[in-house]
Amino acid sequence: MFIYTQRNLIACFSFALTCHFLEAVTGQISYSVSEEVKQGTTVGNIAKDINLSVKDLQSRGFRIVSGSKKQYFSVNIETGALQVSERIDREELCAGAVSCSVNLEAVVNSPLQLFRVRINILDINDNSPVFPMSSVVINVSESTAPGVRFPLESAHDADIGVNSVKTYKLTSNDYFTLDVQTHSDKTISAELMLQRALDREKTPQLEFTVTAVDGGSPARTGTVMIEVNVLDINDHAPVFSKPLYKVSIAEHAPIGTTVTRLHARDLDEGLNAEIVYSFITRTPQNILEKFEIDSQSGDVKIKGDIDYEQNTAFEIRIQATDKGPVTMSGHTKLLIEVLDINDNPPDVTVTSLLSPVEENAGKGTVIALMTVSDPDSGKNGAVRVRLARSSPFKLQSSFQNYYSLVLD
Ligand SMILES: [Ca+2]
Ligand SMILES: [Ca+2]
Ligand SMILES: [Ca+2]
Ligand SMILES: [Ca+2]
User: Fold this and answer.
1) CA of 33 to the centre of ligand 2 (A)
2) Distances (CA, A) of 95 to 90, 92, 123, 163
3) CATH number of the domain residue 273 falls in
4) Average pLDDT for residues 372-385, to the nearest whole number?
5) Ligand 3 center to residue 292 CA distance, Å?
6) How many whole angstroms from 129 Cα to the centroid of ligand 2?
7) Which of 12, 13, 34, 300 has its CA 20 to 30 A from that of 154?
8) How far apart are CA 12 and CA 224, in angstroms?
């Protein structure tokens, strides 16, 4: 085996020993070999192809000259076989070039002959498609209309032609499909397309996989994980736990007493779900003077004096408003029943009095007329009237709370 280096060849030219070198080119031979074949693999029989016997190879000083740094090929001088002597990686040698070859020159002396040898390096499918990142996050508003597209970064496959990326596939999901496009430069790209309306309240996140498939046999694949964050919009109003709250309080309950706590829920997220409680705008003044609501907690508290004799009940309309860019509100009613307590003593008023009384006054003579009143209600306002000590008088009820004091 002889390998005549480029440097020797230049030296040859510089000493003008073989100045007719170029004129001596007598043929061109082409071979093909796949990349990554085993060392020692025979590419072809160069002796046969240039019509030389194995004996001639030796006697005429056969040698090959390679232009590249690496000696990928050698000739077995015993057999004339052109063999692979180094690992050949097409991707390293030619990267994305459509055709890839190694050029050699074969030289024999007496007479001097020069043969150009081209070895085409065939691609094998030894690379998988690779996405720039293993996972991608896409933020999509839940208001996004179906049909909107989200381009994906293409996968790269170091192989060429059919061994490169051929198509993209999507793991089945309810919301997105994949639109695969082939461009004029034969590159292939994919876009996610929203198929139906998203609802963050139902599906706040989606996860699926996009797979790039090459056209090799067997095919190789690469995947990217797609994480879709569905962004909230303010499409829900706060809703109270009850449409009507009923409570009762004792009249004259201390100021600051919590009447009840109202609660509303908002299905949205963040500010779209943050609630502010308030009385509705047209709340009557007497309610505003007697009650207040904590805008954060929904606690309704007593603010002024509650007198059963003034109001036996209050009906308050309350709203819960979220803090969305365009706010939404929900409403409820709070019915407060005021419980009477016995806070008024009965009051006796003498409306007419016969005094002094003549000693011979007859039995049944009316001495005084009285009214008895109690502003409390029910039992608390019912009055029983009796004389404190035994006396010649007795009480007669005329009607309702009117009494007469008569001689007995
Ligand atoms: Ca390859
Ligand atoms: Ca490939
Ligand atoms: Ca909301
Ligand atoms: Ca929402």
Assistant:
1) 18
2) 7, 6, 11, 13
3) 2.60.40.60
4) 80
5) 24
6) 6
7) 34
8) 57
